[in-house]
Amino acid sequence: MPEPPPIGSGRELRSLAKAKAEANAGPREQRARAERRGIERAQELLPGALNAGIDEPAIEQSFFMPRKVGGMSLFLLFAYAIAVVVSQGLPSPLIWAAALASAAPFAAGALLAAIERRAEGAGPVRYGVVLVGIVLPMACAGLALALWVGEGLPWQWAIATLICINAAAAALFGTRIISLFSANIASWTGFAVLVPGLLTYAAVIAAALTLSLIARLEWKAAESRRLAREARERVAARAEDILRSFEETGQGWFWETDRRGLITYISPKAALVLGKTSEAVIGSPFGDIVDPSDGAADAERTLSFHLSARSAFHDVEVRAATSADERWWALTGRPVYDSYKNFCGFRGHGTDLTEKRRSEQQVSRLAHYDSLTGLANRVQMSQALEQILAAPSGRERECAVLMLDLDRFKQVNDTLGHPAGDALLRQVAQRLERTIGTGGRCGRLGGDEFKVIIPGHRDRAMLGQLAQEIINSLSQPYSIEGQSVVIGASVGIALAPEHGASSDDLIRNVDLALYAAKDAGRGCYRFYAEDLHAAAEERAELEQDLRDAIAKGQLALHYQPVVHASDEKIVGFEALMRWNHPKRGPISPAKFIPIAEDAGLIDRIGQWALRTACADLARWPRSVRCAVNVSALQFANPDLPVIVSNALAHSGVAPSRLELEITESVFMGDSSGTDAMFRALKRVGVRLALDDFGTGYSSLGYLKKAPFDKIKIDRSFVQGATEEGSRNGAIIASITSLAQALHMDTTAEGVETLDELELVRLLGCSHIQGFIYFPAMTAAEATALVSGDLVVEADGPQCARAPRQNLLRKVVVAHGGNRITATLRNISEGGAMIEGLWNIPPGSAMRIEFSADTSVTAQVRWARDNRVGVEFHQPLRRRADGAFAVLKGAPAEAGISAMR
After folding, report:
1. DSSP states along 412-460
2. What is the rounded radius of gyration, in angstroms, for the C-alpha atoms of the chain?
3. Which of 370, 623, 715, 829 is the most exposed place for a label (fewest CB within 10 A)?
4. pLDDT at position 58, please?
């Protein structure tokens, strides 16, 4: 069987191969020492590597015929040539025949060896090879020398030559005991013919038997030694294979130094990490493989200490001296001593820690940073704030905390999906970092909530400016998946230590400031104030009261008429939510609707409003419509078309009589879901109105595809439109022109004066809604109103007037020589309304006496029943408390504006 090829790589593997070579070639003691060195070396490099069993094929010595025996034939011919010289003559042909017969089989020894190996252990073939290749040539050699003695060769030379031939055979066959003893017996048997006889034959037979017995004993001992040697070689080969696998799989690598600390071996993979070859690294100081930078200085000093102290070390972490990517190793080593206890150097192994350290860094980053945006997370922001507040100096404890909340972010998630929401949050984080810069630290607390910490003392003006910059930056349009998205931001601000000396107090107060910013209409910032605690408690109470009001049916719908501009005929109503709190009285929808949205109650309220409005609409003439507001959260509900259909079916109202008013906020996502909702609602048959047009994030792009039937012009454009220099009229004209081109109606909201009514009619508005006709009324009042001919008349002041204060105060009016006691109902800087005066024509002058020493002159502008409206000749001035100077001792309630 063929000899197995050597396994392994590197210096250790070469050392093991050298040990095996010494074991095969040297004396017994040398072989044993070499074997021990090879096994010990493998055990030192990889403890435990010798525990697994690996089978190896039989070694070469298990065959009788060696592969290389051709040299024996040359040796025989050389011996015969010298014998010719010694005998001083050529032998007879018979001797030459015997001599050639002894050399020829050895010349063909390689062929015989191949035959034996191909026989795969067959006994007859192998013993036939011994007979032909060993016994026959050796017997012929002995016979040739014996016959040559008879022809004059000195017998002393013949015996010496035969001894040399046997010595050569011993060197050739080595530990092959059967082959060796067969050669010896055969050679002396052939020589025995020199003195033929019974005694000679008996001696030869006795010698053969003795040698056979000795050969058998020696063969058994050699076989035992061979098996032991093969076992040791298998162990060494197994260790080599494990070491090689350990290196090649990247689990680790090996190194060795001499007593001077110079590298004598390093695994190729480790050298490759250093950007060099093993040969280039060998001879360098071991410390050169460590990065000398400041970050690795401590590790290098630890390694240097162990090397200088000649002490073992385990898993010392060092940074590799690489010029490319950062790589980290864990080095383990121990000192090596020779048999005389002399220090020889260090030997050990290393493992790559790069991925482990990266994983640890990633885990640490996840523990302190937000995985989505890369900003600091809640834990790190809390630690940073506590660190500032724990500073020893009072000045160092000063800082500002800004809490941010994104407005309308939930609608982006609902309309575009959470992946789009995640992309939006990443862009928000980038804008926030750019705005803050290096002056502060940004973090994401979770969801759409962010925090900013500004260390040091900052005045309120600077912080307010920064908060406004944040709001402006975050309110710019975003591009998400090819679609334009617009959101807003609200900011709360608290200062330390003014608003809290501890982290908990400061966070609670900045949250209250953020809630105040939301309650103020969002898209703004608010500083913390002491009264916010009361406001927060009030809001929580209102939320609970609102839940109770929904459950107890305390909400109500009021209806404000919508009048056709051309014929002043009522064509519809807008349903308006009203809540008369049992303790607080009427609460404005602007206050409780945002609470309902935040508390998740708006959908229940919206469904109730739809059902109630449809039920009231069923009692009105068929020419009258009713408009119901739909919030963006309701619009995002996929069940909205079904809810509308059920309300219409239950009340028996035609779908065309119901009008849904939708604000521009539903278009923030501009998604296919929004278009699908519009199509579904139009399939139901209801009308759609765009409410508060121009006050939000207007985009004319959605008007070309959204199926609106009406555009409602917000009251902010109507109010002040008649004032000199106002641009509101131009805006109204543009909206009406756009609506006419798109075949849509227009409704002007909030019309309160006759001049505003005349203007919106002149500018082309098709419908009017406002106090100029009617305020909002109950369902019963609306039913009574539409029971007639539906034609109404405008009733209101001629023009807009300054803001007035409502109050009840007795005054004395001097007119036409009469002094009349009347009641002052409201007052402004330029005029007042007085009750209790009859038959005073417009244009009359009068004096109004507020007290014995305070009076003003005025002119009557209008008179109706017992009420007159007057204009002061000189505008009044206000005191610091907000009351007018003429109203001495006026109660604080006098400054409260009237609620309509």
Report:
1. HHHHH-HHHHHHHHHHHHHHHHHHHGGGSEEEEEETTEEEEEEES---H
2. 55
3. 623
4. 45
The residue assigned the tokens 């409003």 is 609
Indicate the SS3 state at residue 3.
coil
Residue-wise DSSP of 702-731: GGGTS--SEEEEPHHHHTTTTSTT-SHHHH
pLDDT band at 865 (very low <50, low <70, confident <90, very high): confident
Percent residues over pLDDT 70 in the chain: 83
Residue 432 is predicted with a pLDDT of 93
pLDDT of the residue at 364:
66
Closest CA to 846 of 862, 863, 858, 838: 858
CA atoms of 453 and 441, how far apart (whole Å)? 5
> Which residue(s) pair with 806 in the sheet?
826
**What element of type H or E holds 740?**
helix 728-741
Strand ordering across the sheet containing 313-319: 263-266, 253-257, 343-352, 328-337, 313-319
Q: Is a pLDDT exceeding 60 seen at residue 300?
A: no
- Structure tokens belonging to residue 523: 């898209």
Helix, coil or strand: residue 511: helix
Q: Which amino acid would we find at residue 629?
A: N
CA 334 to CA 44: how far, in whole Å?
10
Tens-digit pLDDT profile for residues 122-162: 678 877 877 887 888 888 888 888 888 878 888 888 888 88
pLDDT digits (tens, 9 = 90+) for 596-611: 988 889 999 999 999 9
* Beta carbons of 830 and 797 less than 8 angstroms apart: no
Alpha-carbon gap, residue 759 to 711, rounded angstroms: 18
**In this structure, what token pair is assigned to residue 82?**
């010298």
The number of residues in the chain equals 900
Q: Which two tokens stand for residue 818?
A: 């009469």
HSE-up (13 A, CA, CB side) for residue 876: 28
Closest among 127, 62, 82, 73 to 101, alpha carbons compared? 73
**Cis peptide bond prior to 497, omega within 30° of 0:** yes
Secondary structure (DSSP) of 392-415: SSTGGG-EEEEEEEEETHHHHHHH
Query: What is the reported pTM?
Result: 0.48
Terminal alpha carbon distance of the chain: 112
Distance CA 23, CA 17 (A): 10
Residue type, 693: F
**Residue 342 corresponds to which tokens in the numbers above?**
């002399």
Residue 817, phi-psi category: left (phi > 0), alpha (psi -120 to 50), beta (remainder): left
pLDDT at 472: 93
The pLDDT value given to residue 675: 81
The number of beta carbons lying within 10 Å of the beta carbon of residue 551 is 9
In the chain, the amino acid numbered 667 is F
Backbone angles phi, psi at 801, to 5 degrees: -125, 165
